[in-house]
């Protein structure tokens, strides 16, 4: 089994389209209520769909892996993307920066290297 795509809700497709294109995703499908993007690395896709109301509370959390996290964050900040957490080394051995998309979905840009799938506490 392989993860194909993640879809997150939005109430404003146009602002979400611009946001995700600024992040570097390539738009490949677009309608009035749905859009799908290719991720710049790998084979995964990411999509947004229009809903009447986005979920309350923590909602969706999506992780995008970046080879050079600090440079990626600096570049996105220059393009006007705001982060609520700067790149930070976490106790689970990932380096993460956190932000919200226009629909308040949580996005985490991170780098984990070998610890992504093989942390020291991995169950064999």
Automatic annotation (TrEMBL):
Q: Which Pfam families match?
A: Glyoxalase (PF00903)
Which InterPro entries does this one have? Glyas_Bleomycin-R_OHBP_Dase, Glyas_Fos-R_dOase_dom, VOC_core
PROSITE patterns, per the entry:
VOC
Pinpoint the VOC domain residues.
2-112
Coiled-coil positions are: none
Q: Which Gene3D superfamilies match?
A: 2,3-Dihydroxybiphenyl 1,2-Dioxygenase, domain 1
Superkingdom, according to UniProt?
Bacteria
Entry protein name: VOC domain-containing protein
Q: Which organism is it from?
A: Gangjinia marincola
